[in-house]
């Protein structure tokens, strides 16, 4: 049953010292605690919904063959209680509580949606629903989720093709063997309205049904024109709750319609020439917070997601379980979205903005099946807890864009330069400081005949095993083989009277990834580990719907291979009410795709990230709960390939990239979050949170960046009676102006201003 919300109190920390010293101190702290306690630390279970929901000790994934305490990898689980307390209503809002993750902005080739970066690496295609890849660009909801699991470091052993940074697994709500009715009704500032329902009923003694519903409508505080609404439904039915065979059938549907945010443009610095003196400082331009550069009669974004799942699990006896999951999914993403482009230095030279129209008409279909055998056995005198399985998948994306008549360039210059703005430019140029979203822009819109089809087939086999070498020593092993085939097809088409030839590209690749970790347990409630893992990112990793697209330029290249070294420790202290974790890691990508000395794209680049992660989750006392962490990242473009330094019209001259050694874009050096609650009186809880993110670069040049920020949130809750709880959330308490989406070198996304929300939770 969904619990009532725990509550929070802000905790102040002393200033952090150098990250390495901080990590060493944190690694040593649990050892000191252990010196004061016995290894036979009793298992204390604090009764109460707040504690049991707040701390999650296991992952629901079959591929984790040990408790999180004994898993030699950085894993953060965001439980339902944290999601509810923070007032999160989307995946990106929930992930704000996990440092080391940044949210990227959409761009021309990068779709609007959940663009995640984990440990500095693009993880846009590394989102999973119940362990199966969720393909296609989408903005994901949380109304039908039990928890969110974030796995840091190379993820290919778990999920196949992936980035070097990690992946996010969404755990769906399913029917349970109990009866409950839960609902929420929320209202707030910026015309916030939200209702949800979570209903579960047993059918006889062996089956149950569950229904989750959601309706949501809101504007964005501080961004007057931005608004959106969505609704969703997620029914599930489970048979065999008490027998050896359990069958769960689920369906998820969500639709959204919104006016997408254009953000605020950067100053476009000049590197040479007479205009260098007019450069800004590389930050977003200083304009009113509500400056909106889009067009109300042009811009829109409509999405739809449908997922159907059949999950069959059978207990074979003797400690063995077989499971088969079949999943069909469809995502559509349809939009016209104005990007406030700063090309040609419009913002600096003329005080204008070109209203670049980014458009997309995309539909992605996927079909996947996975079969796994899990269990435990004693072989060669050692206990093995294992999972082995096979996965088969097919993904197909159809993608196009919109054409406009008249076009979207400035007819006065026949380019995207904007010395002036207004009717003469057909309103394709607007004022930097006083844009008018109601400009009478007139057009006809049609779908472009340039249509791209990408279909991807994968076959995979994997095995994981946790071997108990001795009571204090565990060996964790994982191996996965993938057969990856993806094909691009762009049929011949005619545009503006010109015939554009057909285009095909295909990649066929096999790759094997593995992980190995050695765990030492100083006590039953602790672990210290070293681990090594690999990852592979083949060309076209995004399946046709992202920034890592398949093309004739990259189709014959090898996958980008990454490796990760990690030293960490995990402890459950204070009678196992509180979980602590710390890790030192280094990730390397040694064959990144970059421009080679001859001007072609080759696997000759190198990237690396060194970092420290600290985490805390659980209860300091039965009434005081905490959830948070700190991440320090040093991401470097060690070898960014070559650039053409010849003047325009002259033969190409390639020199080593001047950006070698620069910092990864979208990678803050320091990020931290803390969410904490305290029950001050029976039924009365107060709390708050803080998020800190340091400067984030928007380009490899390191000339544009979003400044660092600190955001504060507050919450209070009152249990009226056993059936009704009232909760007040004030997000961005100080109304801080900051930028929360940075990956395009042209603009930065503006975060919502102060928002107050009152939610009534009903349980009956």
Core attributes:
22-stranded antiparallel beta barrel; Maltoporin, Chain A; five-stranded mixed β-sheet; mainly beta; disordered N terminus; 764 residues
Give a verbal description of the structure.
The protein has 764 residues and is mainly β. It has one domain: TonB-dependent receptor, beta-barrel domain (Maltoporin, Chain A), CATH 2.40.170.20. It is 5% helix and 54% strand. It contains six helices and 42 strands. The chain has a 22-stranded antiparallel β-barrel. The protein starts with 18 loop residues before the first helix and ends with a strand. It is a multi-pass membrane protein. Residues 531-550 are annotated as: Disordered. A motif (TonB C-terminal box) lies at residues 747-764. Keywords: Cell outer membrane, Ion transport, Iron, Iron transport, Membrane, Receptor, Signal, TonB box, Transmembrane, Transmembrane beta strand, Transport.
Chain-wise SSE layout:
Elements: H1 19-35, H2 49-54, E1 75-79, H3 80-86, H4 91-94, E2 101-104, E3 115-118, E4 121-122, E5 127-129, E6 132-133, E7 145-152, H5 156-159, E8 166-172, E9 180-188, E10 192-203, E11 207-220, E12 223-239, E13 245-258, E14 264-265, E15 300-317, E16 320-341, H6 346-349, E17 352-379, E18 382-400, E19 402-405, E20 429-431, E21 444-447, E22 452-470, E23 473-490, E24 493-495, E25 498-500, E26 503-520, E27 526-537, E28 560-573, E29 578-595, E30 601-621, E31 624-639, E32 642-644, E33 654-656, E34 670-681, E35 684-693, E36 696-697, E37 705-706, E38 709-721, E39 724-731, E40 739-741, E41 747-750, E42 755-763
Parallel strand pairs: 5-8
Antiparallel strand pairs: 1-7, 2-3, 3-4, 5-6, 7-8, 9-10, 9-42, 10-11, 11-12, 12-13, 13-15, 14-41, 15-16, 16-17, 17-18, 17-20, 18-22, 19-21, 22-23, 23-26, 24-25, 26-27, 27-28, 28-29, 29-30, 30-31, 31-34, 32-33, 34-35, 35-38, 36-37, 38-39, 39-42, 40-41
